[in-house]
User: Fold these one by one.
Assistant:
Number 1:
Amino acid sequence: MSLSKEVNNGIMIFIGIGIYFLTMELIGLSHVFLLRMLNILIVIYFVNKVIKSNYREGRIEYLDNLISGTITSLVGVFLSVAGLLAYISFKGGNEYLNQLSKNFLFGGGEPSMYQYCIGLLFEGIASSIIITFTLMQYWKDRPLKHF
């Protein structure tokens, strides 16, 4: 059984973000807010890869590619948030979460690990949709000869 390219690239987003954040934690930079935001580049890379692949295969319908890019990014978001929840639980739950930087986008107060992950899930879904729409605007006017 082979997985679709959307699911494969969504898994690659999860792996890329996981490696990125584990590396940041190992070198002691996980508290730096701006570095935490750079994970968006991983999502952009893999969503772009799927859309570009679709164009190469002759799938140039806007809605098809919009759905394809959205599925890719959402698979990455859901797996990443589930992985984060597991990691926080492994590291000590709410006690570990309280050690993390207070500078997260939807923040304020002291959220539980479930509240934190749900907030990240909504933030990830919104970013995924924005990234996909932005890339679709980029690709929709590209002539097919560039592929």
Note: The mean pLDDT is 87.
Number 2:
Amino acid sequence: MEIAGWILVIILFVIGMAGAIYPILPGALAIYAAFFVYGFFISFSPFGFWFWTIQSLIVIALFIADYAVSAWGVKKYGGSRASVIGSTIGLIVGPFVIPAFGIILGPLLGAVIGELFTGARLDKALKAGLGAVVGLFSSMVAKFMMQAAMIIIFIIWI
């Protein structure tokens, strides 16, 4: 059973890290679930109050940072609330509509369309779209680092 537990933990870690790049995957939740899989298959004894507190705070920070960093990118480049909403919708829908390039084009087009709906000029809308892409990449880097920290803490703890 221990080998099966480790295999599942590793699979969840891989899904988690892929979720830092491909936002449709539940990155932080997959990593968090790996801790429970380890506990059920191997042992919960290494984990205590501080482990769960630290990991939970990282997960909460990840959810906040995921939205905040993306929104920051749009706002930094002059986008409005409509372009933040549009880029978020584009981030979710884009990979399904345009499989190869939807991860980048979705937020870009979503922010541009959102900004155009507010009556903004095309140049301002394109600038907001660029901000959405900058925010997306910044968010990916932040998620990757925090999720890697979750895994490193787990490895150190056990």
Note: Residues 122-157 form the longest helix (36 residues).
Number 3:
Amino acid sequence: MSTVTSTTPHRSVRSLARRTAWLANALFWSAFAVLEAVNHGWLAGALALAFFVLPDLTFLVALDDAPRMAKGQLPPRAVPYYNAMHRALIPLALLLAYAFQPFFNWPPAFAALCGWLAHISYDRAFGYGLRTNEGFQRD
């Protein structure tokens, strides 16, 4: 008698926990961006909003190739730009540099990084991640 075990329930629980953590992150960075906008004015709010939208503008890099792509596929020419703008380590490293360097203290830059991290976090929470070289979602 053979026993078949499935990892699907464990994988879905792990996936749900991961996505819930990303959602909590997204709400945190969104609240921080709003707080920075309230405390530092319209420029901080505008940059937070711009950097919230900016990562998805990488789709425009290969807009002319889009009609020839399969459903859900990003044109391969746009993948490096998309993946670079959707890696959380990049804005986190910039936040770290912002926090520890003594010569650059501009709150709108901090608000922009909060907006960027909120975007990445919402994408991960809703199941959108990095892309393969061919332009499809990674698992």
Note: The chain has a mean pLDDT of 92.
